[in-house]
Design goal:
By secondary structure, the chain is an all-alpha fold. The chain has one domain (4-116). The protein has helices at residues 4-42, 48-81, 85-110. Helix 1 packs antiparallel against helix 2 (48-81) and helix 2 packs antiparallel against helix 3 (85-110).
Length: 128
Amino acid sequence: MLSEEAAIHWVEWSALAIELLAIALIVVTIVVSTAVYVIALAVQHKDRVESYERFRRRLGRALLLGLEILVAADIIRTVALDSTLRAILSLGLLVIIRTFLSWSVVLEVEGFWPWKRPLDRTPAGEEK
């Protein structure tokens, strides 16, 4: 059975690993999406507007996923390691800020708020 110190250490490393996963996901997506965008314009001579919109959607999705993963790491760290009222309030503020950022990215990528999605439309980039 794990000692309390070992459990705390394991949770800290787990939260750090989750944060690194989010950062890696965002960075890799930016690099790959940029390469695909440049290739589409330079080599394949595709439509600039369509290529740019696809590029923005990919980056937006990566940021959304990265933000969600970062929130998960914060929740794990706060709940397991520091469940004081101050830490929970800080977590709540972080979640509110990241939720606002997520909504802003959705608005930028899809053109409408997440709760105002037209019923006859699937999320951007998905096929019906």
